[in-house]
Amino acid sequence: MDHILEVENFKVYYKGVAGDYRAVDGVSFEVKRREIFGIAGESGCGKSTLVEGILRIIKPPGYVAGGKVIFDGIELLKLNEEELRKIRWKKLSYVPQGSMNSLNPILKVKDQIIDAIVTNSEITKKEAEKQAPKLLETVGLPTDVSEMYPHELSGGMKQRVIIATAIALKPDLVVADEPVTALDLVVQRGILQTISELREKNNVAILFVAHDMAVHAELVDRLAVMYAGLIMEIGPVIDVFKDPLNPYTKLLIDAIPSIAKKKIKGIPGISPSLFNWPAGCRFHPRCPFAQNVCKTELPQMRKVGQDRFVACHLVGE
Amino acid sequence: MTTTPLLQVNHLKKIFTTGVLTKRQIKAVDDVSFTIFGEKPQVTALVGESGSGKSTILRTILGLIRPTSGEILYKGKDVFELLKKNPKNYRREVQVIFQDPYSIYNPFYKVDRVLELVIKKFNLASETNHDDLIRDSLRKVGIRPEELLGRYPHQISGGERQRLMLARILLIKPNLLLADEPVSMIDASLRAIFLDILLEFKKKYNISSIYVTHDFNVANYVADDVIVLCNGVIVEKGLISEIISDPLHPYTKNLISSIPVPDPTDRWKDKIQLKVTDLGRRVKSQGCIYFGRCPVSCSECSERNPMLKKVGNNREVACLQYD
């Protein structure tokens, strides 16, 4: 088994009065062991809904509408709450968006880490107490942070504490939703460095969700680009940037301002809304290369070349 | 003959006091001075991390916050005097775009209202050409009027809301536009479109801007000059192209080397070390603001406050290395 996570034709919908809103509408991808797999996409494309669906923490009116999620050989969608609880945190952990602001303000950092360990495993409080400083060191924090309260820490340090609790039980996969958003540049760089080192030290795979393409370029091994509830392209990050296959990926890369280039170009039109996805390829109203077939038929994800997948009518075999 | 500069900020200082019993003072802005000449329209970026005082400076220029000391002169006259005597005039000449495209609109009114209000308030048009003016301004920011007019704020996207603000600016045609992170909440694919319109304002309508951002990538795209702020103090200023290619202050160096580059073949190679002093608080009241985080600091840095010194033609740096 070289895949820690396999997602197949996975769908997460939101129930509405007039019918379902198809926020995630059939996506498939795999995350290899020890891999940092990135999911990119603009706001509203379904990134967060996708990971909430995979982790089965999607709240009503959202629900998983179909597909398969296989984590380490186990079909997640078939487990009951009790079986799921045994996997969560121990083998599969989650760093939610904005979670650095969810630390308990009246508990010391060490108590919060101990709490997470004791609640989710058979480890005793005494044992957990010994582990806390080591975990902080793993994420690049000085050990005396364990005696501090959250208000004494900066945003970047709080984010490190959250990551430390997420890896406390040595999971095989950490799902991190926008872990560097809203952090300052230098701090962001430090966190990315920490995530990268974690993979080396702890043999953990990371599913890394971020809207910022430049951050993906710095960190991930393979990248999936989402648009309007679907994945448009998957491939090794170097190939995706060097030779994007889907026109959306290409235009998105051209739209990133960078100190290395002076000219950027936006993508005209607006992101479609999940209340009313366009027919055919969901990018066709904004795509400069759209053909007739694009307006009527939804392109399927196909394998093209080594380790590359694309959903576009215009890409040849 | 030298003309009066458009905007002068002189020794601006703002101290916030918090706490009821234990009064704690936070220096948000400390002795900041800069000038926007405005003979030739220019975009000046105020770049800094969170807590560097960039928004406080912007709000003081707008007259929303009173400075603890120092003055802001618009065309040679004190801003707070201007606001007392003739607020309408100042508001017409100095306009602002805020960060959040969601909280600016009143959800009970159609979006047309933000444009109608400025026309009424500033008497920009007669009843007859009122509609044409609105439509024209929308077209100029790349919005089809028939798609937008008559809608409610929740029916349009964040990018459209921000561009609608640009259309509003275009109706007013101010001399100076203050922009507080206007693209940080809109999608990457639409940012370039917004920024291009802002650049057009400069070229076509001679509107100068102060652009507040934490993102050097964006600053590089829109700005001519840049002012780098660290904990309320200007550490470096100059032309954006020169600062990005050759930063002098250790803080600017650190910032620029931490910008993620959208090229996976060119990743960061060296590692950064985290210090506990990265908490970002000023350790002492005297000495350099960046002491404690600075990789090249010496003992003198903890005692003496570096002043902004001219280095080269267009550059000023506040660092004892260049003193």
How would you sum up this structure, described in words?
The complex is a heterodimer of chains A (317) and B (323). An eight-stranded mixed beta sheet of chain A has the order 6-7-8-3-9-10-12-11, sandwiched between helices. A four-stranded antiparallel beta sheet of chain A has the order 2-1-4-5, covered by helices on one side. In chain A, helix 6 (185-202) links the parallel strand 7 and strand 8 (205-209). Chain A is of the alpha/beta class and 317 residues long. Chain A has ten helices and twelve strands. Helix content of chain B is 32%, strand content 23%. Chain B is built from eleven helices and twelve strands. In chain B, strands 6-7-8-3-9-10-12-11 form an eight-stranded mixed beta sheet, with helices on both faces. Chain B has a four-stranded antiparallel beta sheet with strand order 2-1-4-5. In chain B, helix 2 packs across helix 3 (87-93), helix 4 runs parallel beside helix 7 (158-172) and helix 5 packs across helix 7. Chain B is globular, with a radius of gyration of 21 Å. Chains A and B meet through helix 5, helix 6, helix 7, helix 8 and helix 9 of A and helix 7, helix 8, helix 9 and helix 11 of B.
What's the layout of helices and strands?
The complex is a heterodimer of chains A (317) and B (323).
Chain A: E1 3-16, E2 19-32, E3 36-40, H1 47-54, E4 62-71, E5 74-75, H2 81-87, E6 92-95, H3 109-120, H4 125-138, H5 155-166, E7 173-177, H6 185-202, E8 205-209, H7 213-219, E9 222-227, E10 230-236, H8 237-242, H9 247-254, H10 292-296, E11 302-303, E12 309-310
Parallel strand pairs in A: 3-8, 3-9, 6-7, 7-8
Antiparallel strand pairs in A: 1-2, 1-4, 4-5, 9-10, 10-12, 11-12
Helix pairs in contact in A: 3-4, 3-5, 4-5, 5-6
Chain B: E1 7-18, E2 24-36, E3 43-48, H1 54-62, E4 69-74, E5 77-78, H2 79-85, H3 87-93, E6 94-97, H4 112-121, H5 130-140, H6 145-148, H7 158-172, E7 176-180, H8 188-205, E8 208-213, H9 216-222, E9 225-230, E10 233-239, H10 240-245, H11 250-257, E11 309-311, E12 315-317
Parallel strand pairs in B: 3-8, 3-9, 6-7, 7-8
Antiparallel strand pairs in B: 1-2, 1-4, 4-5, 9-10, 10-12, 11-12
Helix pairs in contact in B: 2-3, 4-7, 5-7, 7-8
